[in-house]
Structure formats: structure tokens, C-alpha cells
């Protein structure tokens, strides 16, 4: 039996690919949070609100469309975005409080 047909070898190959994707996602999230922390400091310096509902609404619509194009469940994309934004707003609030 060749490796291409060996289910155990195929499973290991697929899992290695998943592990690489997970690592890339973590580094991309870290980069995203570095950028949003800069936004938080800017907002804090200029007494701007921690959240921007209009911007968030635009981003949800944009990400839902991207998810559809990528054949990803738009509901999942929106849930992910809302989870990330909640953390960003927490960081912005802490920056505004001088933490």
C-alpha cells in the first residue's frame, strides 16, 4: 500500500496541514491585536469611545460577504468577529482607563 492510499499517513498529512494553518492564524491574530492596540491608544489619547458601532457593522457585512466567497458559514464568521471585537473593546477600555 502506498502512502497516498494509507489512511494513517493521510491523516498525519492532513493534521500537519491543520497545525500549520493554526500557527498562521495565531500569528495573524497577534498582528491584528498589535494594530488594534495602537488604535486603542490613539482613541484613549483623544478621548474617543472604545467602540465604534458603525465601523463594526460595516466590518460584519464585509466579513460575511468574504465568508460567502470563501464558502465559509457567514454566521460563523460573524460570531468570530464579535468575539474578537469584544476583546478589542476590552483592550480599548483599559487603555482609556490608563491601565
Automatic annotation (TrEMBL):
Q: Where is the Chorismate mutase domain?
A: 5-96
Question: What PANTHER family does this protein map onto?
Answer: CHORISMATE MUTASE
Q: Which GO terms describe its molecular function?
A: chorismate mutase activity
Q: What is this protein called?
A: Chorismate mutase
List, in alphabetical order, the GO biological process terms annotated in this UniProt record: chorismate metabolic process; salicylic acid biosynthetic process
Name the keywords, alphabetized: Isomerase
Query: Isomerase: present as a keyword of the record?
Result: yes
Q: Which domain of life is it from?
A: Bacteria
Report the enzyme's class at the first EC level. Answer: isomerase
Instruction: List the PROSITE patterns hit by this protein, alphabetically.
Output: CHORISMATE_MUT_2 (PS51168)
Has keyword Cell division? Answer: no
Its EC number is 5.4.99.5
Q: Which organism is it from?
A: Microbacterium natoriense
Recorded hits in SMART domains, A to Z, give:
CM_2
